[in-house]
């Protein structure tokens, strides 16, 4: 009985970790789509564009909300005479999310090299 409980508990923890990872990847995909959109509108070259995307994704990783990212990109675009509303940018951000990640959880096998999680 105890072993069965521990196995269920580990399974629940694993599902939680997978869900959190999926939410993170979904949010990162949205930030990347937003950065790509801004890069195209600003006419940035390759290296500058990559740096801009890295800054946005780094801000997301360090806790910036989606609204803060949207406002930052809106301000950057407005400073370069490309006026977009936060709603338009939000649509770009949500459109950049992988639909498979937005749908329900799908458990896929992972290779040990990709994950440091050991249960």
TrEMBL record:
Region called Disordered, residue ranges: 96-119
- Pfam families named among the record's database cross-references: ATPaseInh_sub_z (PF07345)
* Record protein name field: DUF1585 domain-containing protein
Organism field:
Methylorubrum aminovorans
């Amino acid at each position: 009985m105890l072993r069965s409980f521990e196995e269920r508990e580990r399974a629940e923890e694993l599902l939680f970790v997978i869900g959190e990872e999926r939410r993170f990847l979904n949010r990162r995909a949205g930030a990347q789509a937003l950065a790509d959109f801004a890069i195209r509108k600003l006419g940035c070259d390759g290296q500058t564009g990559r740096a801009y995307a890295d800054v946005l994704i780094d801000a997301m990783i360090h806790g910036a909300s989606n609204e803060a990212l949207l406002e930052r990109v809106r301000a950057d675009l407005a400073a370069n005479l490309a006026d977009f509303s936060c709603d338009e940018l939000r649509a770009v951000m949500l459109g950049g999310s992988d639909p498979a990640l937005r749908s329900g959880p799908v458990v896929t096998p992972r290779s040990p090299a990709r994950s440091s999680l050991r249960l």
